[in-house]
């Protein structure tokens, strides 16, 4: 179970930063100014340690009575988006329900992080767009209504069926994707902005999860 420190945020889009040497750094901007801790899980009461982060204020009419009662019991502002993240007891102790926090207490400039988001949905697509097929083998010699097809999908006699996991047309996008080992480019704690070098899955205003990297390469001395 991943218990690395992390937080959720809203993707604003991409921009670029200029380093001191004049080089351009492409970054994704995440807004975490509206994030608040709305719940805690402890070893004593739940058998594990976790934090429940909430994003985007919700109207009471959009919540069920049990949901609204849970927020009022903890005396926190109702939120539309909730994510529970496992963590260590030491990390959980740094946060209080409903209290603001600083991003520089969680992340540092230059460190590696793992990100996760929902990719843009593209609907039902063919094999050329979904799997980058090249299409028909030829456009001449009598090729007819076969320009964007996928070709053979099975055999006639043995086993006489289409095997599983054959690349075919279907739903493309709208799936959970993780990008590992991205670098934190800049932190604006006052505005609650986190800028990460590179692209992050998801559309504008999409929910993104950011955690400390779990597969960071450790360089040996002298290399």
Concise structural overview:
This protein has 223 residues and is mostly beta strands. The chain has three helices and eleven strands, in the order ββββαβαββαββββ.
Largest sheet: number of strands, sense, barrel closure: 6 strands, antiparallel, barrel
Task: From the alpha carbons, calculate the radius of gyration and give it in angstroms.
Answer: 23 Å
- CATH homologous superfamily descriptor of the largest domain: Translation factors
Q: What is the overall shape? A: extended
Query: Unreliable segments (pLDDT under 50, ≥5 consecutive)?
Result: none
Question: What does this protein structure show overall?
Answer:
This protein has 223 residues and is mainly β. The chain has two domains: 6-121 and 173-212, Elongation Factor Tu (Ef-tu), domain 3 (Beta Barrel), CATH 2.40.30; 124-165, no CATH class. It contains three helices and eleven strands; from the N terminus they run ββββαβαββαββββ. It has helices at residues 65-74, 89-92, 127-130, and strands spanning 6-18, 24-31, 36-41, 50-57, 79-86, 112-118, 124-125, 170-171, 176-188, 193-197, 207-212. It has a six-stranded antiparallel barrel. A three-stranded antiparallel sheet has the order 3-4-5, with no helix packed on it. A hairpin with a 4-residue loop joins β9 and β10. It is extended. The protein starts with 5 loop residues before the first strand and ends in an 11-residue tail after the last strand. The mean pLDDT is 90.
